[in-house]
């Protein structure tokens, strides 16, 4: 099976954007735009902002290609850099990540923008992906990321303890119910997001402890953005 065959079989917007990129890099720019333009009619739950971002991103690349230019030749204050900046600020999507990488590579935005995905969640996600495979060279489940594990602590790699918060989630992985416990501190709101950062549901809590029903979720990694009286806490969990 070829790379294109696999992407076609996967059949979701993310795979189609990768397929469009592959066609573009191999010189078939028309097919790249055809694939991106077809996404709104193909997928009911597609991200409209992400789709427009990709069209704008490849539109800039076409301008550069037609004029024999590179990213480094874009001038400060140009329309193209303005579009690139808007894409970079649009949130968590593939085109925004590309735009931020270009800005960083050519120093188009100083100081650098904040990370799209909080670093502690990204670490959890990477380790989850590694341990989800059957590779014998996996990171051990008890591998210490920052500090040695204390004997009287019982956190998993998915339940990293935030030094400024006592919030815990369990069990992790979970299949039916997920408990979120913030000790004696009140939680105001919980946003449940998928692995790409897209919001699935927001819960208004106003309690220090709550239980979420997660039976409707498909297996995989999810994020929780939890607003507390002491600020925002980000957690990751696995639905099995």
Quick overview:
Helix content is 38%, strand content 20%. It has helices at 3-10, 13-25, 29-42, 48-66, 79-88, 94-105, 119-132; strands at 168-170, 177-181, 187-193, 199-207, 209-213, 220-228, 231-239.
Percent strand: 15-25%
CATH topology of the largest domain: Immunoglobulin-like
Helix content: 25-40%
Quickly name the level 1 CATH class of the largest domain: Mainly Beta
CATH architecture of the largest domain: Sandwich
Notes on the structure:
By secondary structure, the protein is of the alpha+beta class. It has two domains: 3-105, no CATH class; 119-239, Immunoglobulin-like. 38% of the residues lie in helices and 20% in strands. It is globular. Residues 134-164 have low confidence and may be disordered.
């Amino acid at each position: 099976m070829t790379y294109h065959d696999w992407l076609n079989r996967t059949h979701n917007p993310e795979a189609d954007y990768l397929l469009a990129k592959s066609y573009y890099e191999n010189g078939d720019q028309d097919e790249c735009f055809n694939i991106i333009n077809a996404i709104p009619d193909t997928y009911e739950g597609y991200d409209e902002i992400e789709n427009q971002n990709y069209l704008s991103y490849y539109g800039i690349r076409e301008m550069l290609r037609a004029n024999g230019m590179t990213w480094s030749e874009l001038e400060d204050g140009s329309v193209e850099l303005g579009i690139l900046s808007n894409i970079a600020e649009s949130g968590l999507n593939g085109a925004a990540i590309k735009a931020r990488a270009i800005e960083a590579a050519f120093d188009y935005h100083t100081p650098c923008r904040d990370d799209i995905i909080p670093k502690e969640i990204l670490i959890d996600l990477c380790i989850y992906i590694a341990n989800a495979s059957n590779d014998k060279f996996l990171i051990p489940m008890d591998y210490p990321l920052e500090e040695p594990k204390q004997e009287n602590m019982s956190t998993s790699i998915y339940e990293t303890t935030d030094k400024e918060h006592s919030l815990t989630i369990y069990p992790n992985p979970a299949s039916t119910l997920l408990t979120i416990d913030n000790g004696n501190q009140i939680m105001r709101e919980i946003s449940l997001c998928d692995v790409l950062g897209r919001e699935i549901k927001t819960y208004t809590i106003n309690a220090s402890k709550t239980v979420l029903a997660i039976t409707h979720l498909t297996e995989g990694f999810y994020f929780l953005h939890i607003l507390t009286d002491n600020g925002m806490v980000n957690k990751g969990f696995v639905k099995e």
